[in-house]
């Protein structure tokens, strides 16, 4: 396979890299040559998390390096290394179990990432040579970087049409079928809610559908919110709230990347990927507060706030997904700021109508250090979405339980008996952190993949 540039194919010329935990620091230092041990002590290297140390040789040249790691199974524990170390090749010198080595590989790749479409980074990351390259970890890395690239790309270059092209290219590579319903064809084929939200933009709204896998395999539907830019509509966002709204297609990015990962690893699944892709624009034909919007499920929706548009497009996609009678429906959406207020930026909110499904996803997240937190589908809060003229409203005057009310709105469009889970993700890093550069981020994606693999691959 073609290795990413941050990995060295050969150990020739590579310097040793030591992975050191605090409880192994004394033994590691005792095994060093006296001059290197004295140097490590003089530098105050204590193997604390996210620390790094360049080791000198007797000739004063660079002879190796060490990184401090607390949890060897956490990919983020290694994310600082590629830019904390000199930009040259290193070879792993510390014996690690397979799971830890896979975490190192993934973390090194995540830590090496810089979004390069519009400018080149100031320096290259250090390279790493591993004694064996884990193809599953490599595919997971590619999926995470796919999310980052899609979310980081401004809407000028990642509108509904470009998002469609990404899915078409992926589908062609994996011999999947891709169908797109765009513009007024959405009305003709009964996707009125997607059309209503996206009709004001000069870029036509669309539903992107990818289908892959054998008919005999278990069927999983993946749905992603594809609001390529969100002005808030006529309920216009303030400037600071609109600044990063290129990321409002982060749910679509997750669903696309997960579908690509399943296909790349050829899991024995049949998948249907659905991405309602729109811009929530301001224009003469923008949908208005107070309007009643029809939906594919036949449920009428009063628009309380045009800035609660993601749930409006998702309700058509979820209803369509359920028509295929899949074993599971998983949806991903940058749906609410309320989830961030409740859980912060790093912890996606998981909702599910099936306890076993939720437990499997949560367990996978704990195991892979890709955490999420289950929140309740507290159905009494449907009172916050009541309407005097329609079956349901997309919002209401209360600011209470915003993430929960969004989730139970979505559940209204999932038929009884259909197993479903919804992940409310932030898909973003506000600031640079080791292994997590500012910008787009994959959250809960690796856990979703591991959940599906564990559930259907034994």
Description of the molecule:
Helix content is 34%, strand content 19%. With 458 residues, it is of the alpha/beta class. It folds into two domains: 15-132, Leucine Aminopeptidase, subunit E, domain 1; 139-456, Aminopeptidase (3-Layer(aba) Sandwich). The strands form four sheets. Strands 6, 7, 8, 9, 10, 13, 14, 15 and 17 form a nine-stranded mixed β-sheet that branches. It is elongated.
Task: Tell me the major beta sheet.
Answer: 9 strands, mixed
Low-confidence stretches: none
User: Structural class of the helices, strands and pairings?
Assistant: alpha/beta
CATH top level of the largest domain is: Alpha Beta
For the record, the count of structural domains works out to 2
- Name the beta content range: 15-25%
Tally of separate helices: 15
CATH topology of the largest domain: Aminopeptidase
Can you tell me the overall shape?
elongated
Distance between the termini: 26 Å
**Helix proportion of residues, in percent?**
25-40%
InterPro entries: Leucine_aapep/pepB, Macro_dom-like, Peptidase_M17_C, Peptidase_M17_N_1
GO molecular function: manganese ion binding; metalloaminopeptidase activity
Family: Belongs to the peptidase M17 family.
GO biological process, one term: proteolysis
What is the compact description of this entry?
By secondary structure, the protein is of the alpha/beta class. It is 34% helix and 19% strand.
Sequence-ordered SSE layout with sheet pairings:
Elements lengths: L14 E6 L4 H7 L2 H9 L9 E5 L5 E7 L12 H4 L4 E4 L5 H15 L14 E3 L5 H18 L7 H14 L3 E6 L2 H4 L3 H7 L7 E7 L6 E6 L1 E5 L8 H4 L7 H15 L5 E11 L11 E2 L7 E2 L7 H14 L4 E6 L3 H7 L5 E4 L2 H14 L4 E2 L17 E2 L8 H10 L8 E5 L3 E2 L9 E2 L4 H12 L2
Parallel strand pairs: 1-3, 1-4, 4-5, 8-10, 8-13, 9-10, 12-16, 13-17, 14-15
Antiparallel strand pairs: 2-3, 6-7, 7-10, 11-12, 14-17, 18-19
Helix pairs in contact: 4-5, 5-10, 8-11, 10-15, 13-15
């Amino acid at each position: 396979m073609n290795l990413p540039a941050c990995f060295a194919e050969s150990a020739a010329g590579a310097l040793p890299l030591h992975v050191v935990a605090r409880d192994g620091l004394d033994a590691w230092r005792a095994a060093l040559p006296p001059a290197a041990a004295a140097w490590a002590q003089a530098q105050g290297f204590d193997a604390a998390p996210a620390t790094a140390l360049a080791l000198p040789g007797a000739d004063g040249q660079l002879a190796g390096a060490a990184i401090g790691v607390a949890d060897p199974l956490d990919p983020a524990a290694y994310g600082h290394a590629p830019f904390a170390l000199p930009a040259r090749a290193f070879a792993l010198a510390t014996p690690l179990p397979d799971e830890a080595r896979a975490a190192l590989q993934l973390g090194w790749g995540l830590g090496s990432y810089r979004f390069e479409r519009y400018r080149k980074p100031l320096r290259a990351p250090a390279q790493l040579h591993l004694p064996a390259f884990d193809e599953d970890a490599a595919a997971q890395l590619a999926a995470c970087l796919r999310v980052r690239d899609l979310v980081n790309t401004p809407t000028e270059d990642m509108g509904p049409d470009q998002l469609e092209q990404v899915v078409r290219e992926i589908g062609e590579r994996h011999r999947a079928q891709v169908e797109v319903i765009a513009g007024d064809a959405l009305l003709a084929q009964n996707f009125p809610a997607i059309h209503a939200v996206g009709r004001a933009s000069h870029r036509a709204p669309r539903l992107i559908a990818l289908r892959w896998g054998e008919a005999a395999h278990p069927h999983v539907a993946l749905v992603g919110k594809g609001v390529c830019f969100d002005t808030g509509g006529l309920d216009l966002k303030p400037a600071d709230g609109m600044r990063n709204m290129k990321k409002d297609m982060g749910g679509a990015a997750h669903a696309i990347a997960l579908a690509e990962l399943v296909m790349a690893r050829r899991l024995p699944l049949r998948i249907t990927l659905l991405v309602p892709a729109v811009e929530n624009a301001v224009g003469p034909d923008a949908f208005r507060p107070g309007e009643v919007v029809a939906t594919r499920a036949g449920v009428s929706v009063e628009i309380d706030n045009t800035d609660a548009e993601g749930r409006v497009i998702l309700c058509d996609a979820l209803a369509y997904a359920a028509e295929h009678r899949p074993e599971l429906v998983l949806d991903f959406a940058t749906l609410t700021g309320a989830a961030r207020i409740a859980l912060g930026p790093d912890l996606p909110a998981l909702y599910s109508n099936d306890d076993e499904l939720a437990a499997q996803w949560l367990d996978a997240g704990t195991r892979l250090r890709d955490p999420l937190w289950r929140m309740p589908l507290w159905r009494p809060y449907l009172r916050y979405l009541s309407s005097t003229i329609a079956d349901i409203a997309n919002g209401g005057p209360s600011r209470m339980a915003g993430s929960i009310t969004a989730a139970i709105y979505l559940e209204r469009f999932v038929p009884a008996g259909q197993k479903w889970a919804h992940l409310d993700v932030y898909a973003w890093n506000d600031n640079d952190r080791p292994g997590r550069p500012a910008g787009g981020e994959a959250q809960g994606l690796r856990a979703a993949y591991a959940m599906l693999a564990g559930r259907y691959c034994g």
